[in-house]
């Protein structure tokens, strides 16, 4: 039987590595914001309300397909979950990450839905659905921004690098499907099976859009950068969940982002941008924990009312 989790030793190493990355990211980002605090305040003062609302609307549009599919799933399999609870659980899935905070909120979410007969496989469906919705959001905003940036004279090598990454994943997945020995060695090492073709293609295509958003954040003007800044935050947290349920892919997105950025930016700038992504993911954990706490509170209130009425 194929194992869907990494080996305990590898998982411990990944956990320690993620803690170290989070700590280093927070320190570096704190130093960065302290050094450029004056410029950041000036840029924040120039943000336009309409631009911010447009960015938030784009993100919401990207999440709508997943939310619609999730509501249908709830109505079909978990009739006891109210629409409000379903929406909050879905939003938590859209900002989660495979870090200690993300694992904690995942457990809370599983306990909530477990009362209504859900299974871990159903939670995976939630995560993957939100990830694919994030890909749509990246396509709506990230790719146009990236190509607009490329037309201004920026280096286009990151686009080629993104295509190469997609091709590499497809080739590895194809070989693993066609050659059982490859899959057998893969799972014997304690790793889960490779991503299916469709998921790998969509996730990496969305990651290319996310990279375009990050590049636009770095090179955009202060006044027009609000749409990219907000989108980079949202998409960073959304794309993390694709690797939350696929432990073998832990670190793939960060590595791909750093590799693509290195083709266009100086190494120091690329590393700083990758660390910024890690810091945004930590912030997503905080939001996810808050949403999970709210869901549990609503659930307890509902159970309390049911007991009183009965």
Automatic annotation (TrEMBL):
Keyword annotations of the record: Membrane, Transmembrane, Transmembrane helix
Bilayer-spanning residue ranges: 12-32, 52-70, 121-146, 158-176, 197-217, 223-244, 256-274, 280-298
Top-level division of the source organism's lineage: Bacteria
Protein known as: Lysylphosphatidylglycerol synthase-like protein
Source organism of the structure: Couchioplanes caeruleus subsp. caeruleus
């Amino acid at each position: 039987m194929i194992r869907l989790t990494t080996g305990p030793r590898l998982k411990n190493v990944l956990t320690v590595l993620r803690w170290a990355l989070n700590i280093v990211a927070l320190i570096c980002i704190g130093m960065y914001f302290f050094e450029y605090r004056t410029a950041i305040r000036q840029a924040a003062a120039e943000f336009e309300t309409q631009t911010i609302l447009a960015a938030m609307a784009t993100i919401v549009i990207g999440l709508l397909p997943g939310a619609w599919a999730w509501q249908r799933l709830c109505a079909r399999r978990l009739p006891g979950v109210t629409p409000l609870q379903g929406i909050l659980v879905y939003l938590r899935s859209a900002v989660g990450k495979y870090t200690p905070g993300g694992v904690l909120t995942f457990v809370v979410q599983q306990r909530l839905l477990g009362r209504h007969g859900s299974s871990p496989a159903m939670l995976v469906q939630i995560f993957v659905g939100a990830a694919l919705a994030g890909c749509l959001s990246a396509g709506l905003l990230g790719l146009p921004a990236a190509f607009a940036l490329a037309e201004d004279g920026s280096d286009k090598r990151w686009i080629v690098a993104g295509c190469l990454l997609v091709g590499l994943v497809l080739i590895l997945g194809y070989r693993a499907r066609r050659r059982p020995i490859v899959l057998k060695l893969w799972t014997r090492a304690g790793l889960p099976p490779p991503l299916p073709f469709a998921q790998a293609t969509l996730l990496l295509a969305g990651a290319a859009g996310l990279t375009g958003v990050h590049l636009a954040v770095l090179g955009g003007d202060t006044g027009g950068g609000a749409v990219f800044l907000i989108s980079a935050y949202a998409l960073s947290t959304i794309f993390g969940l694709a690797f939350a349920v696929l432990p073998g892919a832990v670190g793939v997105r960060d590595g791909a982002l750093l590799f693509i950025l290195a083709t266009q930016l100086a190494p120091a700038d690329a590393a700083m941008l990758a660390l910024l992504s890690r810091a945004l993911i930590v912030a997503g954990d905080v939001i996810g924990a808050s949403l999970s706490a709210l869901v549990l509170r609503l659930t307890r209130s509902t159970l309390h009312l049911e007991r009183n009425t009965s």
